Amino acid sequence: MKRRLSGDCEDSPSSCEGPAESCKRVRQPAEDSGDVLPDWARLPQEMLLHIFQYLPLLDRAFASQVCRGWNEAFHMPELWRCFEFELNQPASSYLKATHPDLIKQIIKRHSNHLQYVSFKVDSSTESAEAACDILSQLVNCSLKTLGLISTARPSFMELPKSHFISALTVVFVNSKSLSSLKIDDTPVDDPSLKVLVANNSDTLKLLKMSSCPHVSPAGILCVADQCHGLRELALNYHLLSDELLLALSSEKHVHLEHLRIDVVSENPGQQFHTIKKSSWDAMVRHSPKFNLVMYFFLYEDEFGPFFRDEIPVTHLYFGRSVSKEVLGRVGMNCPRLVELVVCANGLRPLDEELIRIAERCQHLSAIGLGECEVSCSAFVEFVKMCGRRLSQLSIMEEVLIPDHKYSLDEIHWEVSKHLGRVWFPDMMPTW
Amino acid sequence: ETRGGNTIESTVATMVVNSVHWFRKGLRLHDNPALQEALNGADTVRCVYILDPWFAGSANVGINRWRFLLESLEDLDTSLRKLNSRLFVVRGQPADVFPRLFKEWNVTRLTFEYDSEPYGKERDAAIIKMAQEYGVETLVRNTHTLYSPDRIIEMNNHSPPLTFKRFQAIVNRLELPRKPLPTITQEQMARCRTRILDNHDERYGVPSLEELGFKTFKGDSSHVWKGGETEALERLNKHLDRKAWVANFERPRINAQSLFASPTGLSPYLRFGCLSCRVFYYNLRDLYMKLRRHSSPPLSLFGQLLWREFFYTAATNNPNFDRMEGNPICVQIPWDHNPEALAKWAEGRTGFPWIDAIMTQLRQEGWIHHLARHAVACFLTRGDLWISWESGMKVFEELLLDADWSVNAGSWMWLSCSAFFQQFFHCYCPVGFGRRTDPSGDYIRRYIPKLKDYPNRYIYEPWNAPESVQKEANCIVGVDYPKPMINHAESSRLNIERMKQVYQQLSHYRGLSLLASVPTIQEEAEPPMSDDSYASSSTAGEARQSSIIILTGFTVQLSVFFALFLSVNQNVTTLPDLTKKSFTMPKKINA
């Protein structure tokens, strides 16, 4: 790209012209009339903006070196609404990081333009610290979205808690219109949540805070009580309480769309509290279409309190081994179930349990079975009962036990027939 | 096959045919068409293996692999002796060695088995070119795989199949693999007698492990996998003796016994080519048809062989197959860089007996069962440690007897959900999976003797045993045996989120479904038959495949960018060359 003489760019077009006029202005008649050549230097700012929005950052940066007009376009606020800070150290990550000088420039020139910001950090404490440093400087920002994402180990947890909290609070206090906040795996605590609520209760719609060990049920209850626009919430089971569900179902509250709960065992033999059926019923009455997503990471003998009563779960994931008995209870008590993923089970076939799930979970459309055992006939029966509503059927080939009715080679035809599409089990290399 | 040209001069001058057969893999005398070509009408034949002892020390090859190779070479030498010939082990690198040999032995014909791997193809192209310059005719035969990888690629719209089912569908439409040739005979060899010098052993003998720089101990001869064609063929016979298995062909369900090295195991022999894959194929096929009265065997009977073919085919045109960066089929995952954790895994010090026992068996013997491989691969990558599959691949390359470039890299990508397979929800628990596979715990006791006195209840998770039990077993966790290096529940929780993040970005799926966040490779099971269906279905297939095929990290240095960013009013007369540096593609801007 040739550099133009600065003279051509002095009179940069104003941004309130309509496109038609701008086009006319851009065109310069060439010597032979009839041929009109566009003058790139005169491309109006709003067009430049539009084009720049398609370019990755680096290409835009190169474009900005062409002339002053394009350089001004590069610094237009609209282009700095979203930014993802990638903070990686060579010792702990293979990925490159956002350049520190670039970060400085953004803070200096564009911090008040930033609205949708995320931080991706690797497993080193330095990266988490760098993220906090940046956060503390976002004083002029009115963020709408903030995401703190650990791409490997949760390095925010390694920071001194106060350091993290004070950085985060800067954003809470200054933004005042936060709508989406992702702070999973961070040392956020009750007082900082209070600050969040005090400043952003009208606007907060999404809050993801799975595995935040310093938050208590009271802390999250405060959020639910004040932030009536909350539509999506993700947290750990220990924060869930009947009061929380009732608060989310109160009249003042909007319909909840997604509730994600992680049930994680800290120590073997951990006891979990129960949630009353009436609280779940209140949720369903208030938000009939809401999705309840539950991820279980428990030992087999810790499932005592779960699935004893009807529960409106829609997406269920068992990350460790889950017993036949519990899967039986799932069949009985989860009428709204849409997706079921089982990582592992014991060595006894899950035939009856699967059939029961097909019978009673009429909305089931996705199922994934890892290290389990299912006889081929029961599996075919299951698929037949579910029929075409099963849009995802993922099962390892090792799971299926051939029996007198079907061999492995035959089963995929039967299943494909009932599903209405070609289907094969998943495979692993066996060499 | 390729032929180098003879110059007219050399054809007139030397009517004599002096052949050299170059062994690389294919370390056998049976089913060796290239070797047969060397013998065909030749006056002399010399069988060479080229080895660089200096290179041995620095190569990522462990002692078991070297031993296996040396034993295979010894076996070849012994077999050749019976035919009044010898094996010539030439020290050096092919590019240096061949010119010398061409001159010294007046070579007119060079033969070798085709190597489909990208590095192999490059090396061989250079050698063929050089041979041409020396007036040496080159003949290459494809016998390391059942089928020609190029043929399969051609039949799949010029790209390698990315699902095993698709691969099987194509193989089904191919003719049967070429029948294996019999072994070299006395008569064949007699016609091309080569004079063996007195100092042959000194100059061209098979090196010892010591010569390659390994320390061995006296009495260290009891090892599990003995290299060589003789051993391979004996094992094949024993393998076929398990007639019942072949006849019923039930999917062999893993039991505790499967974890131990089997006297009929064949994978290392296939890898080094001590056993011809076609011989194996036809033996299995013939036996099946005999026992089942001529019904055609299902493809699943050849599972082991076909997986091998699958990976060779996938890799043949992809020089970046063994890495994440620049590999068009590999998902770019933000793996952690953690050498300390990697070392613990590689050395069997994770604190999880199941993982440690497997890695110990691998290091001691050079082979582990495929489910054991799944367990440790999952643990290293997407299951627990979140370390790059490339690191695991390198450890296997060093230690595993049957790990060659294509199969090893391909399997690691598969197991880490980086390519071919994306059902990342399926995670192997380092405690539960082991316990279900071998409830008796005998496998653990054999490879981690320190834990032998632990009761079955705790042997897979010794850290949960009460102090009294640990004391009685004479093995305190944290002192005699390491504490578990991570909390599995915690790690798997984090990792499933990471994988979900990665995959949701790929598919642009933003919903809740764990399964739906994985774009399934919708290759049709049957490749298109006619031109019409080709047009319509292939674009759909390609479109979906390309949505899975990830942005490779093409990279440009950010400091370059930054310099531009700063220099608002400065003259920038030239833009830097972007092809060589690194940046990460930033996210698209949402207005």
UniProtKB/TrEMBL annotation, chain A:
Residues 1-32 are annotated as: Disordered. Keywords: Biological rhythms, Cytoplasm, Leucine-rich repeat, Nucleus, Repeat, Ubl conjugation pathway. Pathway: Protein modification; protein ubiquitination. It comes from the Eukaryota. Its main location: cytoplasm. One of its GO terms (cellular component) is mitochondrion. GO terms for biological process: regulation of circadian rhythm; rhythmic process. It is found in: Cytoplasm; Nucleus. Residues 37-83 form the F-box domain. This is F-box and leucine-rich repeat protein 3a. It comes from Cyprinus carpio.
TrEMBL record, chain B:
FAD binds at Q304, L305, L306, W307, R308, E309, F310, F311, D402, A403, D404. One of its GO terms (molecular function) is FAD binding. The record marks W335, W389, W412 as: Electron transfer via tryptophanyl radical. Binds 1 FAD per subunit. Coiled coil: none annotated. Keywords: Chromophore, FAD, Flavoprotein. Residues 17-146 form the Photolyase/cryptochrome alpha/beta domain. One of its GO terms (biological process) is entrainment of circadian clock by photoperiod. Its cofactor is FAD. Pfam families: DNA_photolyase (PF00875), FAD_binding_7 (PF03441). InterPro entries: Crypto/Photolyase_FAD-like_sf (IPR036134), Crypto/Photolyase_N_sf (IPR036155), Cryptochr/Photolyase_FAD-bd (IPR005101), Cryptochrome/DNA_photolyase_1 (IPR002081), DNA_photolyase_N (IPR006050), Rossmann-like_a/b/a_fold (IPR014729). Gene3D superfamilies: 1.25.40.80, DNA Cyclobutane Dipyrimidine Photolyase, subunit A, domain 3, HUPs. One of its GO terms (cellular component) is cytoplasm. Belongs to the DNA photolyase class-1 family. This is Cryptochrome circadian regulator 2.
